[in-house]
Amino acid sequence: MSVAASSTTILSEYDPSGQYLAYVTIALDKQRLTVQPIATNIINDTSLLLNDSNLKITCMKWWSTSTSSTTDTVTASILLGLNNGEIWIYSPVSNEIIYKLSTDNNFNQIMDIDLQDDQQTLWCIDSTDTFYNFNLTDFKLKSSFKIDNAVQLNKLSIINDSQLLVASHQIFLIDINTRSIIFNSPGHISPVIIMEKIPSSNFFITGAQNDRFINIYELDATTITTKTVLVGQSNVLKLSTFNESIVAINTEDGRIELFKDPLSVSTTTASLSGSKKRRNVNKKSKRSTTVLNVVPDSQMSIPLQILPFNITINNTLLNFVWFQNAIIPHFKTVQWKELISNETASISVPITSSQSNLKAASSKLLHGIDRASTITYKESNAHISSGDNFKRITDLINTLNEQEQENEDDEEQETLADKILSLESKSKLKSIPTAATNKKSTTTTTTTTGTVTVILSQALQSNDHSLLETVLNNRNEKIIKETIIRLNPKLAIILLEKLSEKISRNSNRSLTLNHWIKWCIIIHGAYFTNVPNLNHVLNSLYVVLKRKAQLLPRLLALEIRLDATLNKLNIDNGDNDITLDELEEQDEDDVDVEYNEELDDAGLIDDGEEDYYSSDEDEDEDEDEDENNEADAVGYAKIGKENHQDDEEDNDGNSDVEMV
């Protein structure tokens, strides 16, 4: 059983101090970069996951602005060469890409990267054998060129300010000033995958793919000569050196081989067949001084082979790393000087409890444990790369239902008269504005918008997440629009990246952040079209919007169905109401009609139907006649009263003549 056989490691590299390991693994169909300290075997949950499955890391190089020999985690960064022609600068402390260098060629992958000793100049080559020179102080491309006859280049190493070493199957010494080949030397049969300088010397080491031979070359001003050939027992995977005293390699069969004093050359005397002459023949090949076998520290029923995938060595210590459970890195540090005296030595390493107790656990069961089953799967080892967070979906639905219920209650409690009065009061207030009020509101809006813009710019430039979150909590669309108008277009790209990250992490926030995305695209869309490689920068935003756009047709179809269903229900309820009203009216009409059989038999009722239909008109005429008769009666009563008073006066015996 092989641990490395199930490993998904693509690339790995120790930092110059040997205290941290950066390695690239496969997470689903995407690559993940993780930086792990060697002091602990607990996997680091903080890692960089590439958003695009087509994006691949092809090479990496540690970079530090500090000149000290030890790596400072604050200033240390990792240069990542990608297959899209870009070089990303990754900060392990903040776990983000702090800058992106572009070769202006998105179809050629970066093959190798190297830095000068001052850590301010970067050289790289791509798949078209083009050389690129970047200045890391201003992150600008200084020059680029190609050299004839230098083709299929895989590795690059900086010698000095004027010379470069590049390798394919051969080794080329390049003059930077004249941009020409100074010297080339036959190297290996297969492509070179290892090329390192030995510090403080004129020697460098090369190793090839599927090859167990390691060549050590001596470099002069104009020539390259082979110094020694180191021979391993199997194909070489990784190599580490410490000055000229020790070389350590790990091979594909899991062994670690040490070569002490690799530059020492022994001379032997050999006889040549078919010739009487004898001459000295220099023997340049050298085998390993010590072979280290890595074995588990406990006995198991099935042998477990530990396969280290990277090593580093210094003056006294040798550190190597291997994977257990396919994803958990484990480190082991040993004193190599104590082992160098023996030709063969064994290093015992601890293994995880799930592996060591597998036999004991199987003995307690009736049928044992099937190694191919999923019983040994651990949820803690599974890494979630993407998905939707439905943790708060129930709370969100309840909140929306409560808001709808409150709105319905308010509408029911508010009468038509209240609505009319509120509208009249609002219209009166709007129709009588004052100059002081207008001036105050304008000043307040301007001040708020300007302040929000300044805060947003500071948050984006300083990468302050809490400050950015304070700005994004603003939901006033007018202020959002004015803020985006005042924002620098370059910062708008960074803002879109931050928004896409927040939406991808929490899909429930898309409702509040959509206004920011909308106004960024509307206002700064013209600038975005002129930015190169924007599709890679905003790839995460594209993925989020595409996923939401795919749901739009289904949501629209669902909305149409709901509207059709509600309209049908309203129509059905309306027809039922009309039918009930008609029935009530008919019942009332039936009550008003009275049928008398005796009158009908006596022939006193003629044309009953006509009388029935004309009953309303007759009733109106009768009412008019009654009113007229009442008026006449009142008038006659007044006249009679006056005449009666006159008669009483006459009866008193006082005539008009007598009064005179």
TrEMBL record:
Pfam families per record: Utp12
Keyword Nucleus: yes
GO cellular component, one term: rDNA heterochromatin
Subcellular location: Nucleus
GO biological process: maturation of SSU-rRNA from tricistronic rRNA transcript (SSU-rRNA, 5.8S rRNA, LSU-rRNA); positive regulation of transcription by RNA polymerase I
Region (Disordered): 597-660
UniProt keywords, alphabetically: Nucleus
Key word Membrane present: no
Domain of life: Eukaryota
Stretches assigned to the Small-subunit processome Utp12 domain: 463-563
Acidic residues bias: start-end ranges: 597-630, 645-660
Family classification: Belongs to the UTP5 family.
PANTHER family named among the record's database cross-references: WD REPEAT-CONTAINING PROTEIN 43
Protein name: Small-subunit processome Utp12 domain-containing protein
Species assigned in the record: Naumovozyma dairenensis (strain ATCC 10597 / BCRC 20456 / CBS 421 / NBRC 0211 / NRRL Y-12639) (Saccharomyces dairenensis)
Organismal lineage: Eukaryota, Fungi, Dikarya, Ascomycota, Saccharomycotina
